[in-house]
Amino acid sequence: MEGSSSPQESLEPTTSSSSASSSNVLDPHSQLWVQFAQANSVKSFCQAWLNLLCHLIPKVSGAIMLVGEPSGGSFNAAAMWPTEQKDVKRLVPSAQRSLKERRGLIHPSETISDLYEVAFPLEVDGNLHGVVVLEVRSQTDEALQNIRRQLYWASSWYEVMVRRQQAGEFHLVQDRLQSALALVGTACDSAEFTQAATSFVTELATKFDCDRVSLGFLRGGRVRVRALSHNAKLEKQTNLLHAVGKAMDEALDQEEIVVFPLTNESLAQVIRAHQELVRQFGSGAVCSIPLHIDGNFIGVLTLERPEDRPFDRATIEVCKAVADLAGPILETQRRNDRWLITKVGDSSWTTVKHLVGPKHAVMKLCVLVFAGLIAFFSVTHSEYRVSAKSLLEPSVLRSVVSPFNGYVETTHFRAGEVIQAGNILCTLDDRELRLERLKWLNQLDELEKKHNQALATHEVAEVTILMAQMEQARAQLSLLEEQLTRTKLVAPFDGVVVTGDLSQKLGSPVEQGEVLFEVAPLDAYRLIVQVDERDVRDITVKQRGQLLLSSLPKDPLEFSVENITPVSTAEEGRNYFRVEASLDHTLPRLRPGMEGVAKIEVDERLLIWIWTHSVVDWVRMTVWKWLP
Question: Does residue 452 belong to any structural domain of this protein?
Answer without folding.
Answer: yes
